[in-house]
User: Fold these one by one.
Assistant:
Number 1:
Amino acid sequence: MCGRPCARSSEPAVVTPEFRGTLGSANERESSRVYAIVRCGGRQEKVALDDVLTVDKLADEEAGLSVTFPALLVVDGGTVISDAAELSGYQVTAEVVGPAKGPKINMIHYRNKTGYKRRQGHRQQYTQVRITGIAKA
């Protein structure tokens, strides 16, 4: 879309005015965005509607269960809400998608010339959630 030739064709990539109009202007796309900064598992995450988020393992991780996260900041188009009194009314709801696992981490302890070798592995457990709503309660 930047005028350089595509890898599969010798023709340059051209964006027609009709196609450009279907995307809308950058200001229109940005103004319709609603996202929030939420606290989950001791970290802060930026979430929007229908995002799938990987958080630390939740105690009740049955698929389809609904969970809520406290909002620390809400951006609704051009409006930024960061006041604690206003944010207490906002709820970020999510639906549990299912469990997930992090990468396998191998640890090897070795002491030279003593015959001491120990191997240990670890794989962090996570829960994936899909954001279903960012709304005032």
Note: Residues 42 and 95 are 19 Å apart (CA to CA).
Number 2:
Amino acid sequence: MTKRLLPLFAVLLLATTVANAAHARKSHRARRHNHTREHREYITVAYHPVELNTDDVSADSVIGFAQTLIGTRYRAASSNPLYGFDCSGFVNYVFKSFNVKVPRSSEEFYNAGERISMDDAKPGDVILFTGTRSHHPHSIGHVGIVFSNDGDGLKFIHSTSGKEHGVTITAMDDTYRRRFVQVVRLLKQNDDVVLASK
């Protein structure tokens, strides 16, 4: 009797293994399909600026605080200086330190604040770039804070996964210029500076 059940048991075990493998492949394909669909939905999102309360926050204080974080290592999906920062985690942490709630993901910065041209960018403005692997010209994948924009060109402070692998100040070069998407103004005091110069 045991000899007759042994082949039946082996067939059942094989069928179960094949069914589990097929289910795992189907689940993986569904997750990959959902990720692609979510990405496409982001690209079609319209610009709807979000108002932030930044009346009492100066660019000098934001930049001064951001500079204290130079050298903090890069760490994906982190906004904690004890572990490291990704790019949006760094920007989020800096503004959160001044009780300004800003987006946590770089994509969401597209709708934060007021759009400003690169020529009008001021220290404390947020600068948006495509990601290093992005194939869509407006897909946000990197974010930093404008450090300066003067005769020496635009410089920004950010957390990079590049060779510096952490928080650093970078000059706008051809690579970043190709990836540039937008500057957004969060600090209302920067608007006052523009108005005062007109």
Note: Residues 33-45, 194-198 have pLDDT under 50 and may be disordered.
